[in-house]
């Protein structure tokens, strides 16, 4: 079951095998948790929101349309749930990551990759992403970090395909502007390119 | 989630733009290409940075806490019906079990074909004779064995239009489709006796001592003789 595709697992759950849901949770808890962290800026809130998202998805699983991709559907639930949470909390949507504890539990890339991307300051990149509007930020994360197809990005954000392309395109440019303003772009990207 | 294999290529600023774009082609096809390769390179590096950005690991107790919260739930009835209807099943049967079903099916098919053909025939017949007017001939002869109507519309052929006896009575009837016009007619009883209808309003001598009835068929109403 651990290696079964999402559709197979979902069918098993809907047939009454509640334990099969653990496969989906294990498979997607990291991106959902990180989504919640990006949105809320709090490790504790991210855990709660991720848990609530998975429970909500389980409750609504019978509405999931067979043949569709599961992760964008789950992501949509999580995104909407977190937006409601932020609305209730009346919190700023732009999240600073300065207070985050990156020391614990970080999954850094391999040393080889680390060397290749030594110039990229992930902390600054994360901070710059946090300054992007949610719609642009999530489009970029889904497209490049989660490596979803544009169709799935559109599905997750509940927008059209052309709108998803535009969000990714503009989001990347906006992110570059932010990085340049913080001298990040000028010092690293600019020098390597020139 | 099945991630695409990550492509982590070192950025070589001396390579041509095409060569540089190739590893990122799948993900970067929406990037601008018209603003110079410096900008492209910067955006490519940012995209790679996003891809390589480390994730936070969720707490180890997240999965158990979720699984503790979800309980087997009875799905809505319509959902269960839907799934039951969509589920594939295999049906086994012996040839002997098929015979009665096949016979019933064959009978239904034959009856349907006959009914459709009869309906088509009537429809075609009526379509071919749109100017004909239905006329019902009836006469009460309880003791007769056979009755037919003979007349100018059938060139006085003796058995061209035979009447049928109504169940339980002595009344014989037939329905004919006649073009508009004036007709003489009489009833032929048991193949030998000429009988004019006593209820008919118009009579005419046939020159042989018999009285023929006559009728005028028009386009107004169905005539009952």
Task: Give an account of the 3D structure.
The complex is a heterodimer of chains A (194) and B (225). Helix content of chain A is 69%, strand content 1%. Chain A is globular and about 55 Å long. In chain A, α7 (134-145) runs antiparallel to α8 (150-157) and α7 crosses α9. Chain A folds into 2 domains: 1-92, Rna Polymerase Sigma Factor, Chain: A; 111-194, Orthogonal Bundle (Arc Repressor Mutant, subunit A), CATH 1.10.10.10. With 194 residues, chain A is mainly alpha-helical. Chain A has 10 helices and 1 strand, in the order ααααβαααααα. The model of chain A is unreliable at 93-110, 112-117 and 184-194 (pLDDT under 50). Chain B has 225 residues and is an alpha+beta fold. Chain B has 3 domains: 17-52, no CATH class; 98-128; 133-224, Immunoglobulins (Immunoglobulin-like, Sandwich). Chain B is 34% helix and 22% strand. In chain B, a hairpin with a 3-residue loop joins β6 (181-189) and β7 (193-195). The chains are: A mainly alpha (194), B alpha+beta (225). Chains A and B meet through α2, α3, β1, α6 and α7 of A and α3, β1 and α4 of B. β1 of chain A pairs antiparallel with β1 of chain B.
Helix and strand layout, with pairings?
The complex is a heterodimer of chains A (194) and B (225).
Chain A: H1 6-14, H2 21-40, H3 43-59, H4 70-89, E1 106-107, H5 111-116, H6 122-131, H7 134-145, H8 150-157, H9 161-181, H10 184-193
Helix pairs in contact in A: 2-3, 2-4, 3-4, 4-8, 7-8, 7-9, 8-9, 9-10
Chain B: H1 17-21, H2 25-28, H3 37-52, E1 55-56, H4 62-69, H5 77-86, H6 95-128, E2 133-140, E3 147-151, E4 164-165, E5 171-178, E6 181-189, E7 193-195, E8 203-205, E9 211-217, E10 223-224
CATH homologous superfamily classification of the largest domain in chain A: RNA polymerase sigma factor, region 2, helix turn helix motif
Going by helix content, strand content and strand pairing, the class of chain B is alpha+beta
Label the CATH architecture of the largest domain in chain A. Orthogonal Bundle
Give a short account of the largest sheet of chain A: none
Oligomer: heterodimer
Secondary-structure content class of chain A: mainly alpha
Q: What CATH architecture label of the largest domain in chain B applies?
A: Sandwich
Count of distinct strands of chain B: 10
First and last CA, distance of chain A: 50 Å
In CATH, the topology of the largest domain in chain A is named Rna Polymerase Sigma Factor, Chain: A
- According to CATH, the fold-level topology of the largest domain in chain B is Immunoglobulin-like
Reading the helices and strands of chain B in chain order gives HHHEHHHEEEEEEEEE
What distance lies between the first and last C-alpha atoms of chain B, to the nearest angstrom? 88 Å
Mean pLDDT across residues of chain A = 79
């Amino acid at each position: 079951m651990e290696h079964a595709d999402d559709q197979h697992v979902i069918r098993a759950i809907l047939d009454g095998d509640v334990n099969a849901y653990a496969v989906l949770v294990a498979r997607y808890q990291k991106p959902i948790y990180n989504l919640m962290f990006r949105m809320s800026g709090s490790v504790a809130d991210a855990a709660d929101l991720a848990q609530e998202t998975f429970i909500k998805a389980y409750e609504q699983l019978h509405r999931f349309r067979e043949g569709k991709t599961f992760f964008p559907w789950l992501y949509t639930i999580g995104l909407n749930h977190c937006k409601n949470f932020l609305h209730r909390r009346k919190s700023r949507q732009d999240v600073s990551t300065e207070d985050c504890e990156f020391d614990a539990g970080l999954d850094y890339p391999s040393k080889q990759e680390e060397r290749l991307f030594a110039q990229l300051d992930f902390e600054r990149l994360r901070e710059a992403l946090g300054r992007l509007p949610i719609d642009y930020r999530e489009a970029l994360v889904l497209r490049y970090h989660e490596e979803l197809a544009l169709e799935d990005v559109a599905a997750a954000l509940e927008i059209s395909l052309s709108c998803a392309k535009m969000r990714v395109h503009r989001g990347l440019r906006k992110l570059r502007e932010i990085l340049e303003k913080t001298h990040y772009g000028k010092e690293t990207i600019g020098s390597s390119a020139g | 989630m099945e991630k695409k294999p990550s492509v982590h290529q070192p950025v070589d600023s001396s390579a041509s733009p095409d060569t540089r774009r190739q590893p990122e082609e799948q993900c970067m096809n929406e990037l601008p290409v018209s603003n110079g390769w410096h900008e492209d390179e910067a955006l490519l590096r940012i995209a790679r940075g996003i891809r390589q950005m480390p994730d936070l690991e969720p707490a180890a107790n997240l999965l158990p806490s979720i699984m503790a919260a979800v309980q087997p739930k009875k799905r809505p009835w319509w959902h269960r019906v839907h799934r039951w209807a969509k589920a594939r099943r295999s049906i086994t049967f012996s040839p002997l079990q098929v015979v009665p079903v096949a016979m019933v099916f064959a009978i239904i098919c034959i009856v349907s074909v006959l009914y459709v053909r009869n309906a088509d025939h009537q429809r075609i017949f009526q379509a071919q004779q749109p100017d004909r007017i239905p006329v019902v001939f009836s006469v009460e002869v309880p003791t007769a064995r056979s009755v037919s109507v003979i007349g100018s519309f059938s060139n006085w052929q003796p058995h061209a239009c035979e009447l049928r006896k109504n169940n339980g009575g002595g009344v014989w009837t037939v329905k004919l489709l006649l073009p508009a016009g004036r007709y003489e007619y009489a009833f032929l009883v048991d193949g030998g006796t000429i009988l004019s209808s006593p209820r008919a309003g118009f009579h005419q001598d046939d020159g042989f001592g018999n009285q023929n009835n006559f009728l005028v068929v028009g386009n107004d109403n169905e005539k009952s003789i």
